[in-house]
Structures are given as C-alpha cells and as structure tokens.
C-alpha cells in the first residue's frame, strides 16, 4: 500500500497535473509537494539573490510562495491537506535525495516552454533512473 507520495513541482501545467494525479490515484496517502530552487549561477538571478539573503531557506520559501499556495488550492479541491517542502540546490539531485522514505514519486513529464521541456524532461529522466521509490511520470 502506498502511504507516502512525493510530488516535485515547478510552476508548470504538467506539475499541476502530476499533483492532481497523485491526489486521484493515492487518496489515502500523505502527499508531500517539493519545490527546488536552483543553485545560484550567472543566469539565475532569483537563485543568486536567494543564496545571498541573510536566511536563504526563508528567501527560497518566499520565492516559492505562489507555487505552494497553488498546490494548497489544488489539494483543497480534494479536501486534503498536503505538506510542502522547499529545498535549494540542483533540482534532480534534491528530488532524488528526498525519495528515500517515500513509497512513490509522481512527477510531470516536462515544463511549459521549449527550454523548460528540455530541462525538466532531463530532470524527470534522472529522477526515474535514480529514485529510491517507484516513479510515475504524468503527461
């Protein structure tokens, strides 16, 4: 029986579909939504700003607040409470590191734009290959 499900989310429609799928397929499970704020780089202004904040974890959670509110709204449609977690780091690695202790992972197949599809599709593939728990990829 699946009792704990991890749902990694970005701000894409596919991520919302993954959450809805997890809520439909596993109505009695504890659902944890994970959002990963990328590691700082020259091209990632938000992540760099978060890394330089006095409290990076609080800054990352604030940066993810809209996405987490949306996840809570979706869960409320199912009359379910979910746990939300924000991590800072490489998205695939952060998700893989968190899969231990979960019975299943439900992830969207890709993000919205072409760049997102290439990046997130690559992340989904890495998670499928290295996850400690079975992974369902939602399209």
Automatic annotation (TrEMBL):
Q: What is this protein called?
A: Universal stress protein
Listed InterPro entries? Universal_stress_UspA (IPR006015), UspA (IPR006016)
Write out the similarity annotation: Belongs to the universal stress protein A family.
Against Pfam families, the record matches this protein to: Usp
Task: Please name the PANTHER family in this protein's record.
Answer: STRESS RESPONSE PROTEIN NHAX (PTHR46268), UNIVERSAL STRESS PROTEIN (PTHR46268:SF24)
All residue ranges annotated as the UspA domain in the record: 1-139
């Amino acid at each position: 029986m699946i009792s704990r499900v991890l749902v990694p989310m970005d701000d894409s429609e596919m991520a919302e579909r993954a959450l809805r799928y997890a809520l439909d397929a596993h109505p009695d499970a504890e659902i944890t939504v994970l959002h990963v704020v990328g590691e700082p780089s020259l091209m990632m202004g938000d992540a760099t700003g978060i890394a330089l904040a006095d409290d990076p974890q609080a800054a990352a959670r604030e940066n993810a607040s809209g996405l987490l509110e949306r996840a809570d709204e979706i869960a409320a449609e199912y009359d379910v409470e979910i746990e939300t977690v924000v991590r800072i780091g490489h998205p695939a690695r952060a998700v893989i590191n968190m899969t231990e202790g979960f019975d299943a992972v439900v992830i969207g197949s890709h993000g919205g734009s072409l760049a997102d599809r290439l990046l997130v599709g690559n992340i989904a593939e890495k998670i499928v290959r290295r996850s400690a728990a079975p992974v369902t990829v939602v399209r």
